[in-house]
């Protein structure tokens, strides 16, 4: 006898709740269809379901996301870096207290005390005909952030070495829920032949029909749940082995929305409005925001970040603020609306020459007009860089391109090419190659759990109260 075993999965929703009613509708229909046929079926999530870019996620600190997953009938989940490092310690510790699904992650550890009760390194499930399945979860090791929040992510291969052998002794099939990214998933498949399926995420890759590496099928469904993934495993009970592994993704952007979920989201939005509706400051005049010009609000925010971190100088890109603040009562919801990014302040150390190169690079047309997606940035374009503690003198070439003539400190002193300086900025620039000198800095001091919008609120209270 052969038995088909089904898994449906989502990954990297990032609180894209506009799409969520379609996700719920698709999963409910799929589960009902499999139940009617008497098939084994599980629904799983691979992390980054929570993203505080959305007011609902912000107001409820991710717990509304968990409720929505409960309503959709999830059975298993692992967590991503957005759950892990954008919430304060206690908020993550209690995030899944009311989850009706199992949370599995083998490499997350609490540095304060015991792990939360909901956290399991592995989970064992069983099909209707007795096929035993071992599930392990892993998340990406952003320890520079996690450890500031009193968590630790152990190396993924260390966790796999520990648990895969154990699972092999008691399970017929082994599945990894991986919020590590495609490159890591491929390397794991090469090293661990006992893993049958890797359901992935984190790097937002879309594998329409799976990728086969050695004995393992790797799959992932992109981002924002435009696609839902499906894994179909065929177990031969006579041979006592898997005889077929299939992985597919289905685009669901055109499907009808689940009306009950839409109603729930509407109620959550209304409650979020109330929770975020406390007045932070009252403005007598509108505060203008411009992405490509120097503005007072960006200067004041950059000054705040520099002073708050006690850095020698500071720099922030104007694209961090998405809209103006109109005269009248300004609530935390307004601040979240114009600065929704899950971005933390950071100090990096650079010598004088490196700092000048960073200033030059940040004022190029290519940089200011870059439509960045990722690294925590949720805006449209990076925008013009604003500096605190530095005087930056620029001019224009005949072709209209701006260039840096001179960089000095505001007290008039020159930068020493060999001296080390501390620069406060957005943690966005410590990733990738947006500003290579920043990303390569050997000293990075992140500040958590504060987001830049928390410092924006402080700036508004201090500098604009009753303006």
UniProtKB/TrEMBL annotation:
The keyword Nucleotide-binding applies. Keywords: Hydrolase, Nucleotide-binding, Signal. Residues 286-428 form the 5'-Nucleotidase C-terminal domain. SUPFAM superfamilies: 5'-nucleotidase (syn. UDP-sugar hydrolase), C-terminal domain, Metallo-dependent phosphatases. It comes from the Bacteria. Residues 11-205 form the Calcineurin-like phosphoesterase domain. It holds the Pfam family Metallophos. GO terms for biological process: nucleotide catabolic process. GO terms for molecular function: hydrolase activity; nucleotide binding. Belongs to the 5'-nucleotidase family. PANTHER family: 5'-NUCLEOTIDASE, 5'-NUCLEOTIDASE-RELATED. This is Metallophosphoesterase. It comes from Virgibacillus profundi.
